[in-house]
Every structure is written in structure tokens, then in C-alpha cells.
Amino acid sequence: MSDSRNFVLGVYDDEDVLLAAVGKVRGAGVKIHEVYTPFPVHGLDEELGYKRSRLPIAAFMFGFLGLGLALTMQIWMMGVDWPMIIGGKDFVPLPAFVPVSFEMTVLLAAFGMVATFLVVSDLKPWKDPKMLDIRITDDKHVMAIDLGKNKSVNTDEINSILKDSGAVEINDKEVED
Amino acid sequence: MQVTSPVRNPLITGGKTVHDVTEDICRHVEGKPTKSWLLGFTVAASVFGIGLIAVVATLWNGIGMWGLNKTVGWAWDITNFVWWVGIGHAGTLISAVLLLFRQKWRMAINRAAEAMTIFAVICAAMFPVLHMGRPWLGAYWALPLPNTFGSLWVNFNSPLLWDVFAISTYFSVSLVFWYLGLVPDFATIRDRATGIRKKIYGALSLGWDGAAKTWSRYESVSLILAGLATPLVLSVHTIVSFDFATSVIPGWHTTIFPPYFVAGAIFSGFAMVLTLMLVTRKVFKLEDYITIEHIELMNIVIILTGSIVGIAYITEFFISWYSGVPAEQYAFYNRMQGPYWMAYWTMMTCNVITPQLFWFKKIRTSVGATFALSIVVNIGMWFERFVIIVTSLHRDYLPSSWAMFYPTIYDVGVYLFTFGLFFSAFLLFAKFFPVINMAEIKSIVKSSSAKQSK
């Protein structure tokens, strides 16, 4: 693999034009590396053919773990390790364990899911994002096409497809790996 | 593509473009602090400093510095605790519940409301921690760590322990939710900044690059977090109300407490959001983002929750009479006619009567009237907790131990300390963090601007 990759960037300033453009570009047989947007554009992930995130499943599993830990902790401490009579209640009064079990379910589900999200999306404080265009976090949507992965299509052809789909600017960018 | 009903007014006025949003919000983060900000921060920090004296005195000498006695074992501390936690509820309600209900008007206010939640919960936590007397041993009393100070483990039957779990979960989940929302906006500031600011905001933005794949995951994480935070926010004040409702004190032992406390929390929280946002809006010139319509919608929530609180008061009162239990009946008679009658009638006036003024469109769309009434609501809600706590305790089953509670200067000082903490933190947030969620607001710019040009 070479040390740098060449991208063609289609810059769009309207989210609806962008959505239509993604369909057109993919329809023409061009592989899109990624689309960068300043805000979430609804339907963009479907247009790009991304699968639905499995993060909700991770949240469920972490929540289930939290529930299990909370119940184990309470039943073991109150019922097994040091049983005491408190207010004439059972050693293991399950209704009284509901609040703590609920809170720990929510806590682990939320933290586990967010941690998974940060890991799979590779978000970390020391990461250099290598922005392809500085205006992505302001007001421009950028469609990046990796030339190395689109050898079958002529570069000029890609440029004209982008132009036809409504891109306001077309730029070349070399990114070092 | 965003579709909004044609009968709705645009949420952003002034024909803003996406770039205008970046400029309008980032300007305050990037500019030098204004004179009004410096003045506000000096006042808040001074109040914090004065209050700190009372906090140190309490820690040094013990909670004997407060006006508590054998009959009234907790008073201002728990009143302030419940009051601050209640205020915190609006932030999560706005960002989570309104997200699930797809109420787009939340976008302009959720960032600041969530910040308010986090600071309010920190202020609330000060009170149980200080009331421990020796908070450095608190970990053994509050967390399941084996110890020989009492029983080996903490008591999971106790609503006070449930509170520890509820409040800490609530705080940490709210913090994560708030921070996650800030990440794309930190990236915007990073890409406009240079030098050390670029490094700091770069680290805070976690290397966010705006990729569609990340946005897609981000959206599903936000939705699930909202789904988790919704029952969480309802559970927190429910559990706070268990502190009272699971006891056998007349006036506390009622099943109506959980919904009544939750409604009261939302009521006071929205009032505090209005108090803060009306000032922020004016100082930062955000009138195009936080419009009169936003204020009106929040006032409608205040009428609704204020009326629920009013009905709860009347129900409580009726049931105490209908129960035929003399202690229960006396508790309510004593609230209205006893030595603390002023607190009771302040609560009734501020919570039940004055919020009803919002039925008039002129009043609920007036910035001045809303600001005044939002403060009145929070005065009323403070007195509500004071009435519930102190009047139920000071005259209980045994008339020989009846007593009065009078706050000392240290009670006042600790309360002031939390005010200083809250407003200093909020002002720092308003200066260094984007006060409006830019990424979310940008997603409705097109639909709002299209409507305006028609």
C-alpha cells in the first residue's frame, strides 16, 4: 500500500441535494469512501447503504449485566454474608431491591453503550481527525471518493458525475496514511 | 430531510443560514469575556467564597452549627437538597423526554438545561454530604464497602441508600449525555481555533470528524440514552420522595408523594431554566434561537405541572381529613394554622395561584412577566419542601418533645454557598462552552428558513 491516498472531494451546501447526490454517485458505480456532514442528515446512512447500528444490543447486554450484578450484590450482602433482621423484614426483601437494581441497570447500560460507541467509532482525546475540509464542522457537506478504490472509473468522469449531482466545489486532496 | 407541520411557526427566526449558527454561537466562546459576564462571575464567586466560610465552620465544628434539634433532625439541609434535585429535573426532561416526543423546540434550550441539571445535582449532593458530619467516613455509610462502624454492609432496605444510587446514576448518566452532545460542537470550535485553544478543544472533541457512519451511530446512541434517561429522571424524584413516604411521620406517609414530587420537580426545573435562559438570551443576543414561542411552550409546561402540584396539595389535604386519623389531620391543620402558617401560605400562593396567570396569552408571552413568575415558582417550591419537612417534624406524636426550628447563619451560609457554586459554574459554562447545541440547531435551519421566506 502506498503512503498517501488521493481523494476527490465533492462539496455540497444543501442536505437534500447531498442525499440525492449520494444515490446518483453510487448509481453511476462510484464507490464513496465516506460523507462528512456538519450535522446529522436523516436518511444519509440508508442512502450510503450502512447497516443499522448494533449499539442498542450492546446497551441491552450491559443493562442486563448491571441488573445481574445489582441483584447478586444485594442478595449476597443482605441474605448470605451478614443476614440481619431490619424492621421485621425478610433477609432478602426483593421489592426493596427494585430501586438499586433499576439504577444499576440504567448506569451500566448507559456507560457500556457509550464506551462501546467511543471504541467502535475510534473517538479519543489524542486522536488527530485529519479533516479533509475544515468547513465540514461549519456548514459544508463533503463527499469523499478514494481514487485508489475507483480505478475502473476515470477521474474526469468522477468529477463530472459530482458536478452533475449538484456539488458546489470539487477539490483534490492527498492524505498521508 | 426535515419535515415540519406547516401550521407551526419557524423555530429559528431571522432567516439564519447554517454558517450564521456557527458564528452566532461561537462568537461568545471565542471573544473576550464581556463586562456583564465579569461582573456576574465576581458576584457569584464572592457568594461562593462567603458561603465557603459556613461550609468550613460546619465541617470543623460539626452540624451543631445548624439550627437542628432533637425534634427537627433535618430541616434546611434536606429542604435545599430536594429543591436542587428538583431543579435538576428539567434538563433531562427537556433533552430526553422531549427527544422521544420529537419536540424540536427543545434543541435551542437542551444544552443549557442539561448543564443546569449537572450543576444543580452537584449543589444538591453538598447537603447530604455535609449532614453526615464526618463526610470523610461517608464512603462507608453510603457505599457497599464492608466496615465496622455499624453493620458490615449498608442497608439496602433504606430509601436513603436508594437515593445514593439514584442520584449518582442520575448525575453520571446526565453528564455523559451532556458531554456526548457537546462533542460535535467542540469539533466546530476546534476547527476555528488556533494554538493552545485548538489543542484543548481538540482533545475535548475526541477527534470528531463528522463522518456519516459516526453520525449514524451517534444518533442511535442518543436515542437509547434518551430512552434510558426518561425512566431514570422519573425514578430519581420518586426515590427522593421515598425518603419521606416510606416513613411513618404524619404528613409524609402518603402514596401520592412520588407523582407529586416528580410534577413539582419538573415545575421548579422549568422555572429555573426560564430564569437562566431569559438572561442568557438577552446577554448573548440569542433572540432568534430562543424565541417567544419557546418561552410560551415552557410556560405551558409550568401551568400543567403547577396544576398537578395544586391538585396534589388538595388531594393530600382531603385524604388527611377523610382518613379520620387525628395525627394526620393535625399535621395539616398545623401546616395552615400553626406557627409556620406563613410558609404554608407562601407555598400555596406561589405554586398554585400565581402560575395560573400563564393562562393569559399576554402574560405567558411576556419576557418580564415570565422572568418574575419563574422566580416566584422557585420560591414557592422551596417553601413546599420546607413545609413538608419541618412542619411535619416539629410537632409529632409526643407533645412534650414539640419544638421549633430556627435557621442559624450557618444554615443560610451553606445555602448561599450552593448558590455561588451553581451560578459560578453556569457562568463558566456559558463562557467556555457553546450554550446552544449547534449541530442540532443546524439540522432545522433549512426548514425554518424556508418557512420564513414564504
Structure description:
The complex is a heterodimer of chains A (177) and B (454). Chain A is an alpha+beta fold. Chain A is 46% helix and 15% strand. Chain A has five helices and four strands; from the N terminus they run βαβαααβαβ. Chain A has a four-stranded antiparallel β-sheet with strand order 2-3-1-4. In chain A, α3 packs antiparallel against α4 (94-120). The relative contact order of chain A is 0.29. Chain B is built from 17 helices and no strands. The radius of gyration of chain B is 23 Å and the shape is globular. The model of chain B has no long low-confidence stretch (mean pLDDT 88). The two termini of chain B are 19 Å apart. The chains are: A alpha+beta (177), B mainly alpha (454). The interface between A and B is large, with 70 and 67 residues.
Task: Supply database-style keywords.
heterodimer; A: 177 residues; alpha+beta; 4-stranded antiparallel β-sheet; 4 strands; 46% helix; B: 454 residues; mainly alpha; 17 helices; 0% strand; globular
Reconstruct the topology from this structure.
The complex is a heterodimer of chains A (177) and B (454).
Chain A: E1 4-12, H1 15-27, E2 34-36, H2 44-47, H3 55-81, H4 94-120, E3 141-146, H5 155-164, E4 169-176
Antiparallel strand pairs in A: 1-3, 1-4, 2-3
Chain B: H1 18-30, H2 35-61, H3 76-100, H4 110-131, H5 138-142, H6 159-192, H7 195-204, H8 212-245, H9 257-283, H10 292-323, H11 326-337, H12 341-353, H13 361-364, H14 367-394, H15 409-432, H16 438-442, H17 445-453
Helix pairs in contact in B: 2-15, 3-4, 3-8, 3-9, 3-14, 4-6, 4-15, 6-7, 6-8, 8-9, 9-10, 9-14, 10-11, 11-12, 12-14
Q: How many β-strands of chain B, per DSSP?
A: 0
Helix content of chain B: over 70%
State mean pLDDT of chain A (0 to 100 scale): 86
- Helices and strands of chain B, in order, run as HHHHHHHHHHHHHHHHH
Number of strands of chain A: 4
Q: Pairing-aware structural class of the strands and helices of chain B?
A: mainly alpha
Task: Give the class of chain A from helix and strand content and strand pairing.
Answer: alpha+beta
Order of helices and strands of chain A: EHEHHHEHE
The outline of chain A comes out as: elongated
